Amino acid sequence: MKIRLSYSKIGKIRFLGHLDTAHLWERAFRKAKLGVAVSAGFTPRPKLSFGLALPTAGESLVEVLDVVLDPAPSGERDIDDLAPRLSAVMPAGVVVTGAWVAGPQSIQEDVVATTWVLAIDRPAVEVQSRAAELVAAPEIWIERERKGERRHDDIRPGIFELRTDFDPSVLPADWRSEVSASALVEAVVTTSGRGVRPTELVDALFPGDEPWNVMSRVIRTHQWIERTDAPCAPFSVRARKELSHEQRIAVG
Description:
Blueprint: E1 2-9, H1 18-31, E2 48-50, E3 59-68, H2 76-87, E4 94-101, H3 107-110, E5 111-120, H4 124-136, E6 141-146, E7 149-154, E8 159-163, H5 173-178, E9 183-190, H6 198-205, H7 211-214, E10 215-227, E11 230-232
Parallel strand pairs: 3-10
Antiparallel strand pairs: 1-3, 1-4, 2-3, 5-9, 5-10, 6-7, 8-9, 10-11
């Protein structure tokens, strides 16, 4: 039985990289006395599958992983107990928020888009102006490196929404207070292909500036999966949200 777990990663723990986060989870299962099944073969590995990697220094309200436990949970109550049991052995900043039986698809196959909130250390008026210019642009070209080669890609089709006025109440109160002097931008971007990264959004908004000199914090608030003809987000802190199938940007 494959179990899907959701968790948040906020605060100083954001500086823990993806590989170290995987090791953190392996230790957490041991501390919680939960056995993890291993693969067969000469190099058996824990049956743990992580979702889209967070950039180092990125935070999230909704990270996801799949695990096969051994022995498997015997019922719904055992599954419901997983979140508090694992949260109790996690370091500060990591909270397990849910557990349920996963479907056959992997996380990577399920997720089609993600929502980010960027804290930009620029005057709000300037950020709004730059965002409006970005929306008006028919194409958004950035430089990327792939296999040692530099190339230019148009990321415009991969940006579904870009907003400078949105309800920030979805964000933790302490996070909002720490970025109170920053302008906030909410973006919904594709995960298909190479996807669109938060640093690439900043690069498009403020070309020529080092993204982390402009963006003080970034947090992932949703991971969208597609069901029938309307993308929805059972992993998200909101119950549901519709996304346009047109590749467009909406501001305001």
